[in-house]
Amino acid sequence: MPGPRLLRGSANETLAAELVExxxxxxxxxxxxRLVLHRxxxxxxxxRGVISWIEGSEMVVAGCFDPVGELVPVGSRWPLAGEQxxxxxxxxxxxxxxxxxSLGVDVPDPALRDMHSRLTHLLVVPVAVAGEDVAILCVSRxxxxxxxxxxxxxxxxxxxAGANALRSAHLSDLLGAALLEVAAGRADAASVERIKTDILxxxxxxxxxxxxxxxxxxxxxxAGFFGSLSESIDRVMQILERRTAEMNAxxxxxLVAARVEDPQAPTEAETLDLxxxxxxxxxxxxxxxxxxxxxxxxxxGEVVPARVDADRILLALRNILDNAVKYxxxxxxxxxxxxxxxxxxxxxxxxxxxxxxxxxxxxxxTRFGRVLTSANSHIPGIGLGLYFxxxxxxxxxxxxxxxxxxxxxxSTFELSLPLAH
Length: 421
Known about the structure:
Blueprint: H1 10-23, H2 29-43, E1 48-55, E2 58-65, E3 77-79, H3 84-92, E4 96-99, H4 110-117, E5 121-129, E6 132-141, H5 149-222, H6 231-261, E7 269-273, H7 274-288, E8 293-298, E9 305-309, H8 310-326, E10 332-341, E11 344-351, H9 385-395, E12 399-405, E13 411-418
Helix pairs in contact: 1-5, 2-5, 5-6, 6-9, 7-8, 8-9
């Protein structure tokens, strides 16, 4: 076998150009590793070549070329510090030669130790790109012939010529793996979201039956079917009726939220006067509000035509108004105003309640995204109201947003919908 080329002057440049051109023909990581290893073994008259990626404090085998011996398995790992010649080569940034008989390679896998035991000499060089060590190139001999300085010079040139091709191919692999991981993560997330929706639908259906029975018996009691109610029982009845109404509202929200997320669920769009929906929603919430609250509705004199799913938007308006009342436990005025301009209808609901801290605002429109504080932990709810309201508005081409919120009190939410032409 011929000896290594003497790299002097133009010969150095010729070989470098030849190697770069050859290595850049590689179409993928496997091809790049194979080309570099073949050249390294041939040019240094070696018996085996191994390229290992540097991953943190470990070496990970990227490829092995050995025409007659057992190949080192791709993916094998061992500590960088466990192989002294490689550690020195990395520290010095240049080729380093050594003897296997005095090496003391720290390889946890017995099979890998057996592979090394049949070798006599090795030559290692770091593969660096822009000053960063990305891999280690190692060639080995079985015969008792040490590597020379010329061997090191040739191997260093091969590592330099192949560095960019190896780095690019490896980065392409890492990007592909990352994209697959992201795709899998998205699929998993979509699966989790489907499960959540199914649970919402199942739970709401299962709760409706006992609630229907409870509502029926409460109605019979209130109608005097079981006799007249004493004053103390009447007070208990009021509490039961109020809590049952809250449960009915929660179950309805769960049902509608599950329906909103179902891509197969149709949107029953119709053109109507938005003022009618606002008035109906306000009347419904006012009937459940306490005497401490004042719900004021400001409507324009002209029709505000919008093409919407009436049931969904009515429930969205109820949710926003109900939140304004619930989160104003001290009472006060809640103002609901409607205006139309620039092709949009806007419904604003302003309160003087507990307010919302800036760090909590992103959570407002997430499913089950309740913002719990010591001031509101006693207020009933499961965090679906604003989430559903935004989804319902977006199904109709609009949106719901927090347009004004002060941490020390008060907030304003806006539901916007495109005007019907």
